[in-house]
Amino acid sequence: MSTTTPLLQISGLTKAYPGVVANDDVSFDIGAGQIHALLGENGAGKSTLVKMIYGLVKPDRGDMRLRGNAYAPVQPSDARKSGIAMVFQHFSLFDALDVAENVALGMENPPPLRDLATRIRDVSEAYGLPLDPSRLVGELSAGERQRVEIIRCLLQDPKLLIMDEPTSVLTPQEVDILFRTLRKLSEEGTAILYISHKLEEIRSLCSEATILRGGQKVATCDPREKSARALAELMVGQLLTPPERAARATGDVVLQVDGLSLKSNNPFGTSLKDINFALRAGEVLGIAGVAGNGQDELLLVLSGELASPSDRVRLLGQPVGHLGPNGRRGLGLVAAPEERLGHAAAPDMSLTENAYLSGAGRKELVKNGFIDWGKSRDFAESVIARFDVRTPGPHVVARALSGGNLQKFVIGREIEQAPAVIIVNQPTWGVDASAAATIRQALLDLAAQGAGVVVISQDLDELLEVADSFAALNEGRLSAPRPARGLTVDQIGLMMGGAHDLHAPEGADA
Amino acid sequence: MILGSIQPAVLIAALMVAATPILLAAIGELVVEKAGVLNLGVEGMMILGAVAGFIVAVQTGNPTLGFIGAAVAGGVLALLFALLTQVLMANQVASGLALTLFGLGLSALLGQSYVGISPPRTPKLDLGPLSDIPFLGRAFFSHDALVYVAIAIVIGVLWFLKYSRAGLILRAVGENHDAAHGLGYHVKRVRALAIMFGGACAGLGGAYLSLIRVPQWTEGMTAGAGWIALALVVFASWRPFRALAGAYLFGGIVVLQLNLQAAGVKIPVEYLSMSPYLITIIVLVFISSGKARGSLNAPGSLNRPFHASG
Predict the structure, then answer these.
(1) Is the ipTM of this complex over 0.90?
(2) Cα of A267 to nearest chain B Cα, Å
(3) Are B230 and B46 spatial neighbours (Cβ–Cβ below 8 Å)?
(4) Into which CATH architecture does domain A253-340+420-503 fall?
(5) Contacts A–B by Cβ distance under 8 A
(6) Which of residues 20-49 of A touch B (CB under 8 A)?
(7) How is residue B119 annotated by DSSP?
(8) Lowest-pLDDT choice from A38-42, A155-159, A346-350, A389-393
(9) A76 to chain B: nearest residue by CA?
(10) Where along chain B do its domains lie?
């Protein structure tokens, strides 16, 4: 679709924060009804750019024109009034409020809640996104939560819909539904600014792409005409090497879980139901699943933060279910949870202190009942050096590190302890491509040295890259692990959706 | 029989009076906490309201002006709390405790020359024939206006939180301040207004003590009522009507144990005096336990400082 004046013209937008230029002279146009991709690594300035369009951040320089008229939103309600709506990456929803209330909060002049409920039903059916207006958002799945956000936008009849990494929490089937909705919207004349770093998605969905790197625009192109590799290299600015996988023989069972059930102590959490798996030395077990299907609980019960009957979890043949994290660490099981700040690392403590907190036992950082600071510092420094953590030194507090650097540190800290088993949850969430490659390579290297590795992740590409065997969590149940080789994305999607009969041998199609 | 000397109608009437100060303070704090702010300064705002209301009423001879003065004083002290916690980003718990200590000290200073004076009498509200109904009239319809104002505030807060758009925004700010900010709501402004409403309510509650319930000014006369109000909010699971029930339960046991003391029951006075606190908390713990109900209703951003980030 082409029109004479583009819907939104962006020219010379610049925004600097202390110490970093988030956007440097960025210009591009979005046509009416166009699905326009905004592509870039974490920290490339995508979020800052859309926040300026949505009125959350004020640009230092540059201007925007909407349908030819000057457009300078001071706050999000200005943007909404001008017909610009946004679906956030980390959902802007309120768990304890119901769907209708959440929708009302994102609208300028919402009708009374009862009328709104009917309109939500109408719109959700029209776009194939079923949703019950009276349910509490805290009880919804990630895909349903995203529907709430989308419907909230659609009720305002937007001209431009901004979507910030919408598929990172969806199953492949949910992604299909989303894309169908977006294409339908585009046909109806709604432009979509689609932010992502998933190249295949962009190539199948978008007709134009603007690529940002380090805050600057490096190219605007038609993504359908470029290969994913060419786009990736534009985005990263260097050649990428995928992690190497040496073919390796697996050894004895190092971690065995039998019939493990656990009630979640969080009202919005997911209880684990009858989890069974066996992990062998040298094996990487990938556990997929959409967020909120028991990943956090599984990590907690494996790491020892939640206790279980002792014989449900066996480490190297020994029952450890009753042991806490330090007891299990002593026996060789380490873990790195998803939440970097506040769970994996204490935000206001230095890297040395954080290194000590996890490595005290295995690295023998205690001498005569006192902390051996010299040794702790050496340990932190060795992690920093080996995993290329960009920081002035081990005295820096964890909070000051960027997400990717801190992630390299907390995973490296566990790997350096030469564990027999390591459990990681979302090891590369919010980490740029080169740091992610380092982390995955380190996990593979550890497995090659004979450790058992459990990777819990929502990123299917990541799991297919590192895992030898593959299982999916759905509503707290774990499917039986199957060999990762030969699995298709469709099969994985069905496993994630809870089709548990899939572990029959291949060929026995459902 | 000992209990024969206690008249139910008088008991109920006294109960409503005893409960009103705590009810006012609790309903104010409930709104504050629903906006995601924990203000532990209720006791301080109450006692400042008590002394300010007393001074204004004595000086002007008009108890109505006294109550208005008390609400303003409580609101101003709360504004100080809002400035500390919302603008200067001070820790809410520490600021609240400081506010209580400051209020207690300041009120003692201001009230020095008012000890032993009687305030002007607050008239009972004339409800005409309603007050003449046997039993009911004596129990429910022969009170001063503030008793009914307190109930009206509870109903108003319930309606506001449940049905009004402003109330929805306030709950949203308390539930997830980052998301509310992302949608373009003014988190700090909403919180500052809620804090001031809480202060005004606490001030009214304090003045009710010094102008009607006691009525006199003595140093430290709130005697922990602010803390009971705080506990009430949590155990009422942030629901206005439960706060009302809890306040009346507390008031009822206060009055009952006073009557029992007067009737000479052979239980040591200390046990009787502690019974209202003990029983109220035990009952509310039982009400709010079970099915993790209470924690579901707790505002998600309670006591978390909000930093607006680009």
Answers:
(1) no
(2) 7
(3) no
(4) 3-Layer(aba) Sandwich (3.40)
(5) 60
(6) 48
(7) P
(8) A38-42
(9) B184
(10) 2-297
